[in-house]
């Protein structure tokens, strides 16, 4: 009966949660809004409904409960931040479609080398860089097969000769397991005759048969215990050698897989479009504090978050290297050592994979040029220390042109520019291209079919649901009520508040979506900051970054689930490694927000734009 109930737990949660929380809905307006938030939090944490479907609940519940009109709720689902996300993702889809990300990854790996420590550093650096621009899920899904191919070479037999005890191929892996099992069985059963045979075959010049040796041993009872002891030691040494090989393989596999999924989560924090919580923050800032003067844009966020990403990634590399590779400089870095045959085979795999891509096509070059153009326009739109191009070119305020304008402009160009060179670029044209001239115009760099297939539209609805919740909390008065309840926190140092909240958010995001976590926490933190006269960015920025640091569980984030599905990792491995990773992440965030973040965002003072909320 309990098993049947457990199988139906999703239905039970889906049906019973609204009735259990119903007393909130029939109370005040603030309580009714809290009812919607609590119900969505339960559904988001348990995933009894798809996350984007749960994000649509405010469109139904807010009008029914008298919190907001339907037209006002629906307008929250397609704001400037959503369009920034859509434009950035379209460029990321084009990069992925043309395999530009794979070319970058393989090229960097060839440059860094294949020593264990450098290989891990290469994977982490490439994954983090790609995750800054494309989704962490797509980055991990692209990098893990490369890791698997390299592991196959590291664990395989690359010699033409028979493998030694320390080098065995995956094909012989089952034979090794049988050998280990047989040796263990013989050791437990005391099969000394077989042990003698194993020892005699190692000396081909000894023509004495094993039966004669056994008989000679039997004649002298005083020698027999010594022989048995030697044979047991030999058996134990064989087992230990094979066990050490397997242990080294397993640890190397775990380390490389974990470094990819962790780097994917860490890399996304460096850019506004790198991960969902960053977009939730910029959207909530515009929703709750419309007079903030665009204090956070692509350039300011990158200057603040990129050093955090580099510092966290470096410490994570040291931690994973210590845990799974070790600090043997000669073996892991190759100081003065000749590259082994396995490492040569790994280098050959990466080189062959890179050669398979061929020379860069016209489409790849065009996508790379547009990508660089988008990044440059983002950085120079409003660099803070001087007027950006938006002010000089359009002779207007920089708010007229936002980061969303830039991303959508470049995204539109992807559907306009051709994927094949025009006639006047003869150096790019080939016979295949010339033979296709009769078919009509060349297809664009990106088609809508490809975009529709690869775009994660669910994130757009998730972001919209978060903006609707924030607006509903403001309209119902729930934000003000929560802020009043948190007034006693005024006596706690701000840095301590930030650390405790980071720990809370990091724990919560292990069992909930990072976008959902940021959506639930950021409006509450904004109200709390107003009630204690604390700069809202002092707690909102650290908690936004902490929402991306889900390192402990396979279900915490898609990159974790992808590497866990390969079978090398256990939940205990991820928990053991992830606990330290969470501490590293929170430590780096605390250092940043209390040093260069304090100067960049003027966190020591309560800003004027935080004195009032958005107009009704």
UniProtKB/TrEMBL annotation:
Topology in membrane: Multi-pass membrane protein
Main location: membrane
CC terms in the record's Gene Ontology section: plasma membrane
Localization, UniProt: Membrane
Keyword set, alphabetical order: Ion transport, Membrane, Sodium, Sodium transport, Transmembrane, Transmembrane helix, Transport
Transmembrane segments: 41-65, 77-98, 104-134, 256-275, 295-320, 361-380, 492-525, 577-596
Pfam families: Na_sulph_symp
One annotated GO biological process: fumarate transport
PANTHER family to which the protein is assigned, alphabetical: SOLUTE CARRIER FAMILY 13 MEMBER, SOLUTE CARRIER FAMILY 13 MEMBER 5A
The name this protein goes by in its record: Solute carrier family 13 member 5
């Amino acid at each position: 009966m309990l098993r049947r109930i457990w199988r139906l737990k999703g239905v039970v949660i889906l049906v019973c949660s609204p009735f259990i929380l119903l007393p909130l809905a029939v109370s005040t307006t603030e309580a009714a809004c809290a009812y919607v938030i609590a119900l969505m939090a339960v559904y988001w944490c348990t995933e009894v409904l798809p996350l984007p479907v749960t994000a649509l609940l405010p469109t139904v519940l807010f009008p029914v409960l008298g919190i907001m009109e339907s037209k006002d709720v629906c307008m929250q689902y397609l704001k400037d931040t959503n369009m920034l996300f859509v434009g950035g993702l379209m460029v990321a889809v084009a990069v992925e479609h043309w395999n530009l990300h794979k070319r970058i990854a393989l090229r960097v790996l060839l440059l860094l080398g294949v020593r264990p420590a450098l290989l891990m550093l290469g994977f982490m650096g490439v994954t983090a860089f790609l995750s800054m621009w494309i989704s962490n899920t797509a980055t991990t899904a692209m990098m893990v097969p490369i890791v698997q191919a390299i592991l196959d070479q590291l664990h395989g037999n690359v010699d033409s000769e028979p493998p030694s005890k320390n080098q065995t191929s995956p094909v012989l892996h089952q034979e090794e397991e049988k050998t280990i099992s047989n040796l263990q069985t013989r050791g437990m059963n005391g099969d000394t005759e077989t042990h003698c045979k194993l020892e005699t075959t190692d000396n081909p010049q000894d023509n004495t048969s094993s039966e004669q040796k056994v008989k000679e041993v039997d004649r002298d009872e005083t020698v027999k215990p010594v022989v048995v002891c030697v044979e047991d030691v030999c058996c134990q040494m064989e087992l230990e050698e094979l066990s050490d090989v397997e242990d080294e393989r397993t640890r190397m596999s775990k380390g490389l897989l974990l470094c990819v999924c962790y780097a994917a989560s860490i890399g996304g924090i460096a850019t506004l479009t790198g991960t969902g919580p960053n977009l939730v923050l910029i959207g909530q800032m515009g929703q709750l504090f419309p007079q903030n003067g665009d204090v956070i844009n692509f350039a300011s966020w990158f200057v603040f978050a990129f050093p955090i990403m580099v510092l966290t990634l470096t410490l994570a590399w040291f931690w994973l290297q210590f845990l799974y590779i070790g600090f043997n400089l000669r073996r892991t870095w190759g100081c003065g050592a000749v590259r082994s045959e396995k490492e040569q085979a790994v280098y050959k795999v990466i080189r062959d994979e890179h050669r398979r891509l061929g020379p860069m096509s016209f489409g790849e070059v065009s996508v790379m040029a547009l990508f660089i153009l988008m990044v440059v326009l983002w950085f120079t739109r409003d660099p803070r220390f001087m007027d950006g191009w938006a002010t000089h070119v359009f002779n207007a305020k920089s708010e007229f042109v936002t980061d969303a304008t830039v991303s959508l402009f470049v995204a539109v160009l992807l559907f306009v520019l051709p994927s094949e060179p025009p006639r006047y670029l003869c150096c790019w044209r080939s016979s295949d291209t010339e033979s296709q001239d009769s078919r009509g115009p060349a297809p664009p760099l990106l088609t809508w079919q490809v975009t529709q297939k690869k775009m994660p539209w669910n994130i757009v609805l998730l972001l919209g649901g978060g903006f609707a919740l924030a607006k509903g909390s403001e309209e119902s008065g729930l934000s003000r009520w929560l802020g009043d309840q948190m007034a006693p926190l005024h006596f706690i140092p701000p840095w301590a508040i930030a650390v405790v909240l980071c720990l809370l958010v990091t724990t919560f995001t292990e069992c909930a979506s990072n976008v959902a976590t940021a959506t639930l926490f950021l409006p509450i933190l904004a109200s709390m900051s107003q009630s204690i006269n604390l700069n809202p960015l002092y707690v909102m920025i650290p908690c936004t970054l902490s929402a991306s640091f889900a390192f402990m569980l396979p279900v915490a984030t898609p990159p974790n689930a992808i590497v866990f599905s390969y079978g090398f990792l256990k939940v205990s491995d991820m928990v053991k490694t992830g606990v330290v990773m969470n501490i590293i992440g929170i430590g780096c965030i605390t250092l940043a927000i209390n040093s260069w973040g304090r100067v960049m965002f003027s966190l020591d003072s309560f800003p004027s734009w935080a004195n009032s909320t958005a107009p009704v």
